[in-house]
Write a structure and sequence with these properties.
Layout (H helix, E strand, L loop, with lengths): L2 E6 L4 E8 L2 E9 L5 H16 L6 E7 L5 H18 L3 E4 L1 H6 L8 E7 L4 E8 L4 E9 L12 E5 L2 H4 L8 E3 L8 H13 L26
Parallel strand pairs: 1-4, 4-5, 6-9, 9-10
Antiparallel strand pairs: 1-2, 2-3, 6-7, 7-8
Helix pairs in contact: 1-2
Length: about 220
Amino acid sequence: MAYILNIETATKNCSVALAKEGKIILHKEISEEGYSHAERLHVFIEECIQEAGITYKDLSAIAVSQGPGSYTGLRIGVSAAKGLCFALNIPLIAVDTLQTLASQANVTNGLIVPMLDARRMEVYSAVFNSKLEKQREILAEIITENSFEEYTETIYFVGDCAEKCKPVLTKENFIFLEDVKYPSAKEMSTISFDKFKINDIVDVAYFEPYYLKDFMVTTPKKQ
């Protein structure tokens, strides 16, 4: 019986889900304006294990959101996942953050474009069909009125970019599902279990999050 602990920290949403054979048993998450991942993640993990009535030794694998997303958030999630895998000697599964986000769009036709904010008018995005098959690779791109004009199908946009992108992306076939804002560990469970069944795992020692852009350290302006 496969228990997989799913960890999603790529955005403001700090999310943990414990799944058994791909089915959610327990789920804990919180999204705030300020990132609380460092304080909440390990608490959520411990609560899921205790409330499920299992021990860490019952876990078959750890799944972690691989990005793109927040540099700090990804580092916290991946560090926690690696630590558990090393301690328990179990495999690590990496899950595409944008696929997890896209899977929240409950549509049967058209295309799904998950987008995560990358500051100013830049976003991290990909294109999936309604079966969650990737139609275009992940890009860090600047959104303009001509973005996605090559697609004639209905496009459903999900993610935390609606406020800044909706005034620009105005074509008739563009629909914003504004209630789908952040990726969640809940949607990771099916994906991670499918990967577990075919042994689609990553090297715990060498795995790094998919940052997509170089991490930039900025110096505060003088007052």
